[in-house]
Automatic annotation (TrEMBL):
Catalytic activity annotation: dTDP-alpha-D-glucose = dTDP-4-dehydro-6-deoxy-alpha-D-glucose + H2O
Keywords: Lyase, NAD
Gene Ontology biological process terms from the UniProt entry: nucleotide-sugar metabolic process
Name of the protein: dTDP-glucose 4,6-dehydratase
Organism for this UniProt entry: Lachnoanaerobaculum saburreum
Xref: SUPFAM superfamilies: NAD(P)-binding Rossmann-fold domains (SSF51735)
Source taxonomy: Bacteria, Bacillati, Bacillota, Clostridia, Lachnospirales
Name of one Pfam family that matches: GDP_Man_Dehyd
Length: 340
């Protein structure tokens, strides 16, 4: 099979490319990524010379480019990770989220419709369901929970989901959608909470915690997410949505304190800062459907996954120090400059 993975130079897409290239040597994995600030080819170093891997630089919202690529490659499967993914950035620049997350998705869907496809999979998020109150631990997001978004980011992702499902209903396109909770693990860009706290704590810098740190996120180790997507693409029912999560809820303050303890750093580094506007209170996934229908089970709990993650950041300082210093943006030039 020929599989186009979009956004494969980002955090989850990068981990997914590693997983797929190693697990399915008979499949061809084409990583299509625009290399925005969040795309980092240094993440792909472990697979860049694999015979079943290829990188293509391009924009999922560039219709002419996407149609040409599909014409040349005739992919069997498209898995769309490419997105603007940071809520805080969506608050200052909503339009780039509409362009990539909505128009990029419809462009890919149109190409799939034109050239034919065995499966289009949309990597979505639990944030499309909005948030849950902090005082109702009995409530969880199921696939039936109404979409009720809070941020420009989640609104763009919900919109994309609706287009994906509409292309199934209207044109019969074979699609699936997965909605996962917050991920963490290797190659996570240090603007997001967990890698930000690890990298700043290691440098003895102040750790910004929004509001009182009482917001709750449901954390999933990234390879558990990758395995779930692989399963949905291969065994999931066309036209269906699958929630992905492992019941690992923590308040932000608990997360930060766990990291500080593991690194032997003082809690005095914590600095409570002005809250994010519209800050979602709690996310919590009910994963019953993917567990019962597809037999998925996460391998890691938060306690085992966070230890593995911290170890990775300690052993791969060069990767995140390059990001913080801006060095990583030169990788494409060094690697591809003479070949283009
Ligand atoms: P990321 O920001 O780390 O990576 C996004 C990647 O997409 C980058 O490599 C970037 O260069 C690429 N990209 C951006 N715009 C593009 C465009 N127009 N054309 C081609 N490539 C483009 O994001 P992530 O955290 O890895 O998230 C991946 C997907 O998973 C997103 O769709 C996100 O909504 C979803 N998701 C993320 C989480 C999470 O916790 N990070 C949880 C659930 C779902
Ligand atoms: P983030 O990693 O941005 O993911 P999301 O907003 O998509 O869940 O943030 C996770 C939680 O951590 C969220 O409640 C906001 C909070 N947060 C902070 O308290 N400080 C920070 O510096 C960041 C980036 C996030």
């Amino acid at each position: 099979m020929k599989i186009i993975v979009t956004g494969g130079a980002g955090f989850i897409g990068g981990n997914f490319v590693h997983y797929m290239v190693n697990k399915y040597p008979e499949d061809m994995i084409i990583n299509l990524d625009l290399l925005t600030y969040a795309g980092n080819l240094e993440t792909l170093k472990p697979v860049e010379n694999a015979p079943n891997y290829k990188f293509v630089k391009g924009d999922i919202a560039d219709r002419a480019f996407i149609f040409k690529l599909f014409e040349e490659e005739k992919p069997d499967v498209v898995i769309n990770f490419a997105a603007e993914s940071h809520v805080d950035r969506s608050i200052t620049d909503p339009e780039s989220f509409v362009r990539t997350n909505v128009m990029g998705t419809t462009t890919l869907l149109d190409a799939c419709r034109t050239y034919g496809i065995k499966r289009y999979h949309q990597v979505s998020t639990d944030e499309v369901y909005g948030d849950l109150p902090l005082d109702r631990p009995d409530l969880f997001f199921t696939e039936e929970t109404p979409l009720h978004t809070s941020s420009p980011y989640s609104s763009s992702k919900a919109s994309a989901d609706l287009f994906v499902l509409a292309y199934h209903r209207t044109y019969g396109l074979p699609v699936t959608v997965s909605r996962c909770s917050n991920n963490y693990g290797p190659y996570h860009f240090p603007e997001k909470l967990i890698p930000l706290i690890i990298s700043r704590a290691l440098n003895d810098e102040e750790l910004p915690v929004y509001g009182k740190g009482e917001n709750v996120r449901d954390w999933l180790y990234v390879t558990d997410h990758c395995k779930a997507i692989d399963l949905v693409v291969r065994k999931g029912k066309v036209g269906e949505v699958y929630n992905i999560g492992g019941h690992n809820e923590r308040t932000n303050l608990e997360v930060v304190k766990t990291i500080l303890k593991a690194l032997n750093k003082p809690e005095s580094l914590i600095k409570f800062v002005t809250d994010r506007p519209g800050h979602d209170r709690r996310y919590a996934i009910d994963p019953t459907k993917i567990e019962t229908e597809l037999g998925w089970k996460p391998e890691y709990t938060f306690d085992t996954g966070i230890v593995k993650t911290i170890e990775w950041y300690l052993n791969n300082k060069e990767w995140w120090e390059h990001i913080i210093s801006g060095e990583y943006t030169k990788y494409f030039e060094n690697m591809y400059g003479e070949r283009l």
